């Protein structure tokens, strides 16, 4: 059995901590951050990618500010260099919450979504999900649909992010289990190999899922301290 380590971080750095976070990023990351129009979105991007560097650097024994990232053809990032042989990671952030998954010997995808009122959840499901998933969602009691929709969305996105296909893979091209059933990949083109999925407890107001390309996996979550940016920054 392989082991996946998943870090959960709150993105609430103070002004000085944010400066330290920014100092860890490379020019490409800073350029992406500066494309955001809202300062809050820019700050969360910077904090989430600094947290990613801290977590991945700790996993690989590499200083976070010297990590080099490259991208697959589909845009999925990976750590460049021999230290990353067999190592995979994935980042998701929503609102003030970030989830970072790391694994060796497989691929990993994580997704977190902050819950919000969504009166058209069924319409979105019927437009984007597999018909079986939309039907299962419609069969739930109305009061349960919104929460189930967000959990279902994170299950779908975690699979897509593990594969690294981006928008080239339709969300209707594969099916996952719909809550209240536990997470699981039910159908995907060409069989899709072995998959392990699990829900993550990220607290009230959000849903998160991790997906790993392995038959079985020991998921080990850890929540970073609220002041992680102050505790781990050295610059």
UniProtKB/TrEMBL annotation:
GO terms for molecular function: transferase activity. Coiled coil: none annotated. Residues 12-100 form the 4'-phosphopantetheinyl transferase N-terminal domain. The keyword Transferase applies. Gene3D superfamilies: 4'-phosphopantetheinyl transferase domain (3.90.470.20). It holds the Pfam family AASDHPPT_N. InterPro entries: 4-PPantetheinyl_Trfase_dom, 4-PPantetheinyl_Trfase_dom_sf, AASDHPPT_N, P-Pant_transferase_sf. Its EC number is 2.7.8.-. Residues 107-196 form the 4'-phosphopantetheinyl transferase domain. The keyword Hydrolase does not apply. Keywords: Transferase. Belongs to the P-Pant transferase superfamily. Gsp/Sfp/HetI/AcpT family. This is 4'-phosphopantetheinyl transferase. It comes from Methylobacterium persicinum.
């Amino acid at each position: 059995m392989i082991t996946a380590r998943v870090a959960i971080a709150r993105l609430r750095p103070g002004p000085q901590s944010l400066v330290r976070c920014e100092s860890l990023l490379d020019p490409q990351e800073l350029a992406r951050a500066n494309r955001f129009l809202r300062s809050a979105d820019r700050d969360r991007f910077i904090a989430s990618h600094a947290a990613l560097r801290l977590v991945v650097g700790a996993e690989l024994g590499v200083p976070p500010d010297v990590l080099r990232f490259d991208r697959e053809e589909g845009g999925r990032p990976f750590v460049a260099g021999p230290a990353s042989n067999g190592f995979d990671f994935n980042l998701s952030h929503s609102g003030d919450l970030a989830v970072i998954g790391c694994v060796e010997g497989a691929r990993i995808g994580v997704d977190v979504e902050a819950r919000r009122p969504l009166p058209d959840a069924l319409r979105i499901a019927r437009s984007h999900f597999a018909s079986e998933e939309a039907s299962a969602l419609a069969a739930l009691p109305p009061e349960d649909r919104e929460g189930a929709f967000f959990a279902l969305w994170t299950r779908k996105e975690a699979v897509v992010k593990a594969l690294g296909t981006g928008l080239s893979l339709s969300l209707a091209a594969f099916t996952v289990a719909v809550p209240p059933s536990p997470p699981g990949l039910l159908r995907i083109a060409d069989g899709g190999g072995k998959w392990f999925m699990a829900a993550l407890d990220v607290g009230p107001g959000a849903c998160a899922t991790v997906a790993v390309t392995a038959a079985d996996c020991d998921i080990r979550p850890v929540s970073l301290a609220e002041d992680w940016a102050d505790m781990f920054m050295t610059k």
